[in-house]
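step=encode ok
step=design start
structure_in=
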């Protein structure tokens, strides 16, 4: 397992991050604990959860699994989504953040969180209020680094500017949806993150299971893609473009003697600007398959093939800027 610094920080994280959204739901507590221990034993140190995953059960399982190995782990969780019917039980107000961190610390059975992430932008709360609350958490020692998730480029840039102007703690990372079939972040976010040295830790790097190669053009009868709503709903994944990309992945996997999931994750590991893709697994077999993405490097010509087939069309103003780029 290789390691990378997380954004503009000195925090080293493993090149793969273990996501725990299914822990306590489609993944049993026993298998969840086994995955975490196998991940740590093989050099992984980066775990991601959230206060709303399985109504907090994911955090509880993670906390118990790492209780005797806490110092080995870079533990990430999130705040923002609805956690109670109370009017202030949602959002990024100072109250919800302070209530949220205390609840997460209890469930995780720890006295600090390594990376505390805001789950999505909150239009109702000034970003100054949010960042000041997060800054206070870092000062108190309850949180060590902060990150964001599901932001637009202008929202991230505004946040960084507010932190700079007020000398607040700065976001070191962003967690966006990003994969071979979801490259919208290439439009503005990826270049911004490289310019500002913000770590990118993609969620759904396998397109919610689409890139594992287990699905064909017929509607699935089982698995996560049977969902009728959400980013990984079949209606969002089963496009002609996505199947063209999947065909290229399958061909590359065959040439390399790897699985489609391993090829898809390895492509991300070699993508400039990516720090650590967050992979999930419902079973130990899926976990082992995904772990096989590390420890090897895809030949440049095969990487380029996948990059080209999945690239977004040239758009304005990017093509205009590129046209007039100076040669130095």
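sequence_out=
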């Amino acid at each position: 397992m290789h390691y990378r610094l997380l954004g503009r920080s000195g925090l080293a994280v493993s090149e793969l991050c273990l996501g725990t959204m299914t822990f306590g739901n489609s993944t049993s507590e026993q298998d969840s604990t086994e995955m975490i221990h196998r991940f740590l034993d093989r050099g992984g140190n980066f775990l991601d959860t959230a206060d709303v995953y399985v109504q907090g059960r994911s955090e509880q399982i993670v906390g118990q699994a790492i209780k005797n190995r806490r110092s080995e782990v870079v533990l990430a969780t999130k705040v923002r989504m609805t956690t109670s019917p109370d009017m202030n039980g949602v959002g990024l107000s100072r109250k919800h953040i302070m209530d949220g961190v205390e609840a997460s610390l209890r469930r995780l059975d720890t006295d600090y969180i390594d990376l505390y992430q805001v789950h999505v932008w909150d239009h109702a709360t000034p970003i100054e209020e949010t960042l000041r609350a997060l800054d206070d958490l870092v000062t108190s020692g309850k949180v060590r680094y902060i990150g964001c998730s599901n932001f637009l480029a202008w929202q991230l840039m505004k946040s960084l500017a507010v932190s700079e102007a007020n000398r607040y703690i700065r976001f070191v990372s962003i967690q966006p949806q990003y994969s071979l079939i979801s490259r919208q972040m290439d439009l503005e976010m990826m270049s911004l993150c490289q310019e500002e040295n913000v770590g990118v830790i993609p969620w759904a790097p396998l397109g919610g299971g689409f890139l594992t190669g287990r699905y064909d053009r017929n509607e699935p009868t089982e698995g996560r893609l049977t969902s009728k709503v959400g980013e990984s709903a079949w209606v969002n994944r089963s496009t002609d473009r996505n199947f063209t990309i999947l065909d290229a992945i399958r061909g590359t996997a065959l040439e390399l003697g790897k699985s489609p999931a391993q090829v898809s994750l390895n492509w991300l590991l070699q993508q400039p600007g990516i720090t650590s893709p967050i992979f999930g697994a419902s079973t130990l077999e899926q976990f082992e398959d995904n772990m096989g993405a590390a420890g090897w490097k895809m030949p440049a010509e095969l990487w380029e093939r996948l990059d080209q087939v999945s690239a977004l069309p040239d758009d304005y103003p990017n093509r205009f800027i590129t046209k007039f780029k100076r040669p130095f």
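step=design ok
step=annotate ok -> Strands lie at 3-5, 12-14, 17-19, 46-48, 74-79, 113-118, 143-149, 171-175, 199-200, 278-279.
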